[in-house]
Amino acid sequence: MIIIQLKGGLGNQMFQYALYKSLKKLGKEVKIDDTTGFVNDKLRVPVLDRWGATYDKATDEEIIALTDSKMDIFSRIRRKLTGRKTFRIDEESGKFNPEILEKDDAYLVGYWQSDKYFENEEVIAELRKIFEKRPQDLMNDTTSWTILQQIECCQSVSLHVRRTDYIDEEHASIHNLCSEKYYKNAIDHVRSKHSDAVFFIFTDDKEWCKEHFIGPNFVVVELEEGQKTDIAEMTLMSRCKHHILANSSFSWWAAWLNDSPEKLVIVPEKWINNRDMDDIYTKRMTKMAI
C-alpha cells in the first residue's frame, strides 16, 4: 500500500492529489492521510473536497503499519534495539523522482511539485474534470460575475502577488519574495506581445498592490470571503488568457488549468531558497529574474 500525506495549502494539496491519481492509474493501492500533515499547521486544513475531489482515506492502523509507529512497550523496545522499520519516504528535493512511481509500499511525505508525476493523458483528463469548475458552481455574488465578464472580454492577464506569509520571519529565509522589478519586467514582456493587456491582480496584500499597480489596466480582485473563495479565485485566474505567477503552487495550478496554446506564462526563475525546484517549471513557462 502507498499512503500520501496531505499537507500545505490548496495548490500543494492539488499536487499531492495529482500524484494520488497517477499512482492509482498505475494500478497501485493508494490512500491519502488527510490528518497527520495538519496536526502542527493551525492555518491550513484539507480542502480538496471544495473541488468535489474524492479519495480513499488511510486509517490510523494503516499509517502506523507503514511508519512502524506503534507505541506499545514491546514495539518501542524493538525499535531501540533494531531500529525503525518504516516505509516513510520524505521528499529530499523539488526535483522529479521517478522511483516514487515505482513504489508498492510507501508513506510519502512531500509536495511532489512537478507535472512529470502526472503525465498520463487519462490522469490529466481526470484532473481537469475535477479542477475545472463551471463558474456557476462556485460564484453566487455580483462581484465574481463582474470580474469574470471583464476577464473574458479583454486581453486578460492574471498577476499573482503573494506577500504576507512570505515576509514573516519563519518563511523569509525559505521563500523568495518576488520583487517589484520582477513584476515590472513581466508586465513589460506581456505588453510587448499584447499592448492592450489588462492585469487582474490576485493577492493576499491588496493594499500594497493598490499602491504599486496604478492605472486603468490594473484591477485588484476583491471577492467576498467564503468557504470557496480560494477555488473561485483560482478559477478566475485560470480564465485569464495569460499569467504572471508568484513562486506559488496556487498560481501554478491556475496557469495549468488554462490549456490555451496561445497563453503566456511568466514565472520567477528562482522558486525557493532551500531546494532545487527545476522540475516545477513546464515547457510553456518563461523565466524572469526575481
From TrEMBL:
InterPro entries: Glyco_trans_11. The keyword Transcription does not apply. Keywords: Glycosyltransferase, Transferase. CDD domains: Fut1_Fut2_like. GO terms for cellular component: membrane. One of its GO terms (biological process) is carbohydrate metabolic process. One of its GO terms (molecular function) is galactoside 2-alpha-L-fucosyltransferase activity. Gene3D superfamilies: 3.40.50.11350. The keyword Glycosyltransferase applies. PANTHER family: GALACTOSIDE 2-L-FUCOSYLTRANSFERASE, L-FUCOSYLTRANSFERASE. This is Glycosyl transferase GT11 family. It comes from Butyrivibrio hungatei. The lineage of its organism: Bacteria, Bacillati, Bacillota, Clostridia, Lachnospirales.
